[in-house]
TrEMBL record:
Keywords: Lyase, Schiff base. One of its GO terms (molecular function) is lyase activity. This is (5-formylfuran-3-yl)methyl phosphate synthase. Catalyzes the formation of 4-(hydroxymethyl)-2-furancarboxaldehyde phosphate (4-HFC-P) from two molecules of glyceraldehyde-3-P (GA-3-P). SUPFAM superfamilies: Ribulose-phoshate binding barrel. Signal peptide: none annotated. NCBIfam families: PRK02227.1-1. It comes from Streptomyces hirsutus. InterPro entries: 4HFCP_synth (IPR007565), RibuloseP-bd_barrel (IPR011060). It catalyses: 2 D-glyceraldehyde 3-phosphate = 4-(hydroxymethyl)-2-furancarboxaldehyde phosphate + phosphate + 2 H2O. It comes from the Bacteria. The keyword Lyase applies. The keyword Flavoprotein does not apply.
C-alpha cells in the first residue's frame, strides 16, 4: 500500500521532504480551491525541486467542470510542471460518458507529452451530495478512457469521512472493480489511522491523506508534521503485514 501525502505549499512540501522515507508520493493541491483544487504551475515545479528525486510528485488538476478541452490543457500544464501522477476530480461530470470524454482528453494530452505519466480518474465518495458520477462508476470510466488508476476522495471536507459516505463493503467493491480492470485503486477522504486495517484488508493500492498528518488533525489550519507522517506510515505498514500474514495462512 502506497502513502500519498498532500502538502498545500512549498513550505509544507519541505516538511514532507523531512519525512520522505515514510511516504511514497507527494501530492500538490490547493485545498482552498476545493477537495482536488489545482495549485499553480510554479508551485508544482518548486515542490518537484524540493522533494527527493526518487519520490514521484502528483498534482491535482482541480474539481473540474465538464469541459474536456479546458481540462486536457490544465492536465498538460501539471505534467509540464513536473508532476508524474495527474489526478482529475470529475466534479462536473454527471454521467459516465461525460467523465470518459474528459479523461480521454487528459490521457491523450498527458501521455503525448510524457508516456510514463500516471493518470488518475478521481470521483467522490459523497457524490450524492454534489450530483456527480457514482463512486462505483469510476473504475469503468478509468478503464474506458485509458487512465491508469481510479480514486475516491470526499468532495466536501466538513468532518465527514470516506467510510461515512462509501462504507467499507462499497470501497472494497471499488477496489475489486479497479483491479479487475487492471487499474490501481486509490482511496482518500479524511482517512484516519483507525481506517488503515479496513483499507489494507481490501487491498487498496494508494491511501491519500492530509488532515490525519496535520497538527491537531486540522487539514486547513494545521500544518503537516513529519512525525505524524512517520507514525501514520508505521501503522499502515503494521496493517499491511498483518493482512499479508492472514492471506498467507488462509
Ligand atoms: O488526496 C488526499 C487528500 O488530500 C486527502 O485529504 P484529507 O485526508 O484531509 O481528506
Amino acid at each position: 500500500m502506497l502513502l500519498l501525502i498532500s502538502p498545500d505549499s512549498v513550505e509544507e512540501a519541505l516538511d514532507c521532504a523531512k519525512a520522505a522515507e515514510h511516504l511514497d508520493i507527494v501530492d500538490v493541491k490547493k485545498p482552498d480551491e476545493g477537495s482536488l483544487g489545482a495549485n499553480f504551475p510554479w508551485v508544482i515545479k518548486a515542490i518537484r525541486d524540493a522533494v527527493p528525486a526518487d519520490k514521484p510528485v502528483s498534482a491535482t488538476v482541480g474539481d473540474v467542470p465538464y469541459k474536456p478541452g479546458t481540462v486536457a490543457q490544465a492536465a498538460l500544464g501539471a505534467a509540464v510542471s513536473g508532476a508524474t501522477y495527474i489526478k482529475v476530480g470529475l466534479y462536473g461530470c454527471t454521467t459516465p460518458e461525460q467523465a470518459v470524454d474528459v479523461m480521454r482528453g487528459v490521457v491523450r494530452a498527458v501521455k503525448d507529452y510524457r508516456p510514463d505519466a500516471f493518470v488518475v480518474a478521481s470521483g467522490y465518495a459523497d457524490a450524492h451530495r454534489i450530483g456527480c458520477v457514482n463512486p462505483l462508476a469510476l473504475p469503468d470510466i478509468a478503464r474506458r478512457s485509458g487512465s491508469d488508476g481510479a480514486m475516491l476522495d470526499t468532495a466536501i471536507k466538513d468532518g465527514t469521512r470516506l467510510f461515512d459516505h462509501t462504507p467499507p463493503d462499497v470501497c472494497a467493491e471499488f477496489v475489486r472493480l479497479a483491479h479487475e480492470a487492471g487499474l490501481l485503486a486509490a482511496l482518500a477522504g479524511s482517512v484516519k489511522a483507525g481506517d488503515l486495517g479496513e483499507l489494507a484488508r481490501m487491498s487498496t493500492d494508494i491511501v491519500g491523506v492530509r488532515g490525519a498528518v496535520c497538527e491537531g488533525g486540522d487539514r486547513s489550519a494545521g500544518r503537516i508534521q513529519p512525525q505524524l507522517v512517520a507514525a501514520f506510515r508505521a501503522e499502515m505498514d503494521r496493517h499491511v503485514r498483518e493482512h499479508a500474514a492472514v492471506v498467507a495462512t488462509s
